[in-house]
Each structure stands twice: as structure tokens, then as C-alpha cells.
Design goal:
4-stranded antiparallel beta sheet; mainly beta; 7-stranded mixed beta sheet
Length: about 130
């Protein structure tokens, strides 16, 4: 069964850090582009970061650039999102999603949710003092 499972969310104070994990079962993550998205209450889903299947290149939303880092561990079939210097505005449910390797995405299209096919159930991140 094809499944994506996010973990690592929780409650953290402003300025703190969390590392989210996106573990895959039933398929091999390295053959897919992987995106991280988030959705806060009352807001649309927002693309946060992605990592390319073909060359491992990464892309970030301006709102998280310099604070978040996406990475992949092929041996563990897992993609991570390291989040540092967290702000209250980062509070949201975070999702990972896959896009087929052969789907070409450029620039900001890499963070468009419609380009991704398979989604995990999400993990809650709350940044609050």
C-alpha cells in the first residue's frame, strides 16, 4: 500500500526548531519530487519547499528561505524538513506530497499543490510562547 506519513510536529516556542519527517512505504521516494506544504486555519494551502528527484535541487518559499532546509535520506526512504528560527506565522498543519519524476516543474510552479499527486495526512506545528 502506497503511504506517506509525516511526523515530528509539536508545540515549540518562537525561535525554536523542529525537524519534520516524511516517510514513505510502498514506493521509493527518490524517484519522486517531494514537496512540503502547510495550511493554517482559514488560509489556503501554501507551498513551503521541494526537493527534485532528478538532481536533488531544492527550492523554498520566500517566507522560509534561510530558516528551513529540506533534505532526503534515500536509505531511509524519508525526506526531512528542518525548521529553525520558527515564528508564530509558521503555525500550520504540514504535509508532504509527491510528484512524478518526469513531471517538469520550474520556478514557483514547484510549490503549486496541483502539481503533486499523493499526500500524507499532515502533522501539526504550533509556534507559541
Amino acid at each position: 500500500q502506497v503511504q506517506l506519513v509525516e511526523s515530528g510536529g509539536g508545540l515549540v516556542q518562537p525561535g525554536g526548531s523542529l525537524r519534520l519527517s516524511c516517510a514513505a512505504s510502498g514506493f521509493t521516494l527518490q524517484y519522486y519530487h517531494i514537496g512540503w506544504f502547510r495550511q493554517a486555519p482559514g488560509k489556503e494551502r501554501e507551498g513551503v519547499s521541494c526537493i527534485s528527484s532528478s538532481d536533488g535541487s531544492t527550492y523554498y518559499a520566500d517566507s522560509v528561505k534561510g530558516r528551513f532546509t529540506i533534505s532526503r535520506d534515500n536509505a531511509k526512504n524519508t525526506v526531512y524538513l528542518q525548521m529553525n528560527s520558527l515564528k508564530p506565522d509558521d503555525t500550520a498543519v504540514y504535509y508532504c506530497a509527491t510528484a512524478p519524476r518526469l513531471r517538469s516543474m520550474y520556478g514557483s510552479s514547484r510549490l503549486v499543490a496541483d502539481n503533486y499527486d499523493h499526500w500524507g495526512q499532515g502533522t501539526q506545528v504550533t509556534v507559541s510562547s
